[in-house]
Amino acid sequence: MGLRTSVIVNGVNNLSDARYCAGMGVDVIGFNLKLDDPNRVQPQTLKEITGWVSGVKLAGEFERAKPEIINELADEFNLDMIQLDTPYLIDEIEEINRPVIQKVFINKDTVVSELLEMMDLYSPYVDSFIIYSTDFTTIDDTNEKLLKEVAKKHQVYLGFGLHKENVNHILTKVKPTGIGLQGGEEIRPGYKNFDEFQDIFEELES
Fold first, then answer.
1. Within 10 Å of residue 166's Cβ, how many Cβ atoms?
2. Helix or strand run (H / E) with residue 67
3. pLDDT tens digit sequence for 54-107
4. C-alpha distances out from residue 101 to 11, 93, 119, 193, 196, Å
5. Helix or strand or coil: residue 117?
């Protein structure tokens, strides 16, 4: 199966999600490895997941871990990429020995020129950006123009406000590098409801 855009799925914590995403043609599967997060993926679970999936890039999601810790975990679990969910200093990013996806937040007070200035500064040191929002629950006229301006200049994944009814419109109007989706808990071991994923993936099938 081929998808019309690149897809990152964050927060994967079970084999059901990982295998489903790999089979659907997702590009990057992300795992919560935040050191102080009780919901982080446990090492044995991660090893089991990574041992079963192939053909997809694996990313570790971090917040405040030092670059040397990130590199150690990337080597231990054979991660392909690192996602930073909080801002890091450029000097710190340069110490990370995997391509970096930098999470960026926007809200109703975001000024596009200031956002672009920050992204211009970080762009030489990261592979791409994934955009989330603490204010907006959908992508519409209030933020579409901002996202379009950002996507013109940078490798951008949209990580919020997407559903089956608007994903094709957003891809056409904003033209991002791709989209970001969020994994979830299994109903019970080995059983997962994929309706939400499936609806979006059906819209993205090429």
1. 15
2. helix 67-76
3. 899 999 999 999 999 999 999 999 999 999 999 999 999 999 999 999 999 999
4. 14, 10, 12, 28, 24
5. helix
pLDDT confidence bin for 185, thresholds 50/70/90: low
CB 80 within 8 A of CB 97: no
Cβ neighbours for 26, distance < 8 A, ≥ 6 positions apart: 3, 7, 8, 9, 56
Instruction: Return the structure tokens found at 15.
Output: 């084999």
CB 108 within 8 A of CB 135: yes
Record the tokens describing residue 37, joined without a space: 């997060």
Contact 101, 84 (CB under 8 A): yes
Q: Could you write out the DSSP letters of every residue in 139-206?
A: -STTTHHHHHHHHHHS-EEE-SS--TTTHHHHHHHH--SEEEEE----SBTTB---HHHHHHHHHHB-
Q: Tokens representing 63? A: 């917040």
| Residue of 125 and 14 predicted with greater confidence | 125
Cα dist. 45→51, 114, 127, 144, 160 in Å?
A: 10, 40, 27, 38, 27
For residue 178, give both structure tokens.
């791709």
- Burial (CB < 10 A; 0-12, 13-18, 19+), residue 56, is buried
